[in-house]
Design brief:
Four copies of one chain form a homotetramer. By secondary structure, chain A is of the alpha+beta class. The first copy, chain A, is built from three helices and five strands, in the order E-H-H-E-E-E-E-H. In chain A, a hairpin with a 3-residue loop joins strand 3 and strand 4. The longest helix of chain A is centred in the first third of the chain and has 17 residues. Chains in contact: A-B, A-C, A-D, B-C, B-D, C-D. Strand 2 of chain A pairs antiparallel with strand 2 of chain D, so a sheet runs across the interface.
């Protein structure tokens, strides 16, 4: 797992800033960036080959947020097309960390960066482990293989 | 049950307009009035003597929204103190309807009116009935009494 | 302008239900449908040939919401792909009304219908008129022509 | 200005978790904590003797968010009464930093901690300075006095 964001493989998805997401300052309200991070995570899962909704509904594992942070560099405006870039910054079978870059689609300008750290939990919010079949998506070695070496 | 809003008993609660709730027009975004209606319903339940959270968690009954409407008469601004007035417009053991008035606390001006209609549902979103012990809160006659008349 | 929704020309756009938009009942929270209506209006404007953001920033005209309503027919779940269909139900140079249909992309099922009514306003929330150059987008006859008849 | 949160003077305000703020995991969605931080900041300003709304409308100064972070320790549920504790962690006439503690009102349990860093900006989002008359609220020495020393 790369230590440095510059080496991360980023999955890109797009959102358009909604009127609902703006505030009286005329720009996107700061909490909405965390919603866009979520949109980025969902896109990352799809790009890797699974649906996060199914990880919850079929395998009873949840990526509970333990930490979130965002640095705001330039404002986003209504109807701006925004690229959400999501990279896996850390993965164990207990903790997952994502890095994000929020960019303007037109100018390419970096608008914000952020990170979220997640604990694998069960439906009762208790710490748990990533199910075996999801390890590959997160770049973790297959447990079965390791065991018999 | 009164036909006319003027005769309804309204339960009052207060919210202060959050920055997050404003939009680039400088006023509260229209969807947030439905959130305030929800705040009003929760206050109504408390005033009547029960917690809506317990109706869900202990009795597995949900007030699923079937219809919602709002008329916007004057804008609400950041930090405005808003009075949410909630009245029970209709109640059967299958359908509940609330009427709302959103007013400015300082001026008393009516900012918006609205209605929501709810179907009593179970946790699988299937139509259900109001549990016996909740009938009194909604002004419905006690079933047991009716039965032996 | 058709009286009946069945005759309306609907512009389609898509949203995917965000985790942020779900509630503890496991389905999309009712106020978010009004946000999706807004997404639909913005798409409608683009399809007609103008950006709503520019109507505000360049021409100082706002589509202030005067009324909104929604009928909820079936729930929407996290990661569901949703089609928002937006049609112009009424247009004068003072009042605009949109009709909406919210459908499941996969099943085609109708999840909700709704309407919003807007008053053309200036930046001070005062009633105003649709600028001449926007009349064509809303199917209104060109004023210049009418004048000399 | 204290370096350590333990020495900060915290201003307390209360919110009740709204249904709209929950997600399909049954708990408050993570981005909403940043909204509660905002509620905390507004309460902090009031407690200090000014309204943030007026700092914007009368003095054209905005506390633009440059950074935000949150650590989530325990979940918050629908209808939970939450205490938002807001303390001033840093203040210059260009940069303001707040620390937050989110606690359960009933149990006193610490649910989350966070920080936001703000740049004083004008209405065009350009870096600016805290107006003279606000310095006292942020514990900054009166400039006039310093000048004549």
């Amino acid at each position: 797992m790369p230590e440095n964001d510059a080496e991360l493989e980023f999955i890109e998805t797009q959102v358009s800033v909604r009127y609902a997401e703006t505030d009286k300052m005329g720009i996107a309200y700061y909490a909405n960036y965390l919603v866009w991070f979520e949109v980025g995570r969902v896109a990352w899962c799809k790009a890797k080959g699974f649906r996060y909704a199914e990880m919850e509904s079929k395998d009873n594992r949840y990526l509970m947020v333990a930490e979130a942070s965002c640095r705001y560099k330039a404002p986003a405006h209504f109807e701006d097309d925004i690229v959400v870039r999501t990279g896996l910054a850390k993965a164990t079978d207990r903790v997952i960390r994502y890095s994000y870059q929020i960019c303007s689609k037109n100018s390419g300008q970096l608008l914000a960066t952020g990170q979220t750290t997640h604990v694998i939990a069960d439906m009762n919010y208790r710490p748990s482990r990533l199910p075996e079949q999801y390890r590959k998506y997160f770049g973790l070695p297959c447990k079965g293989v390791t065991k018999y070496e």
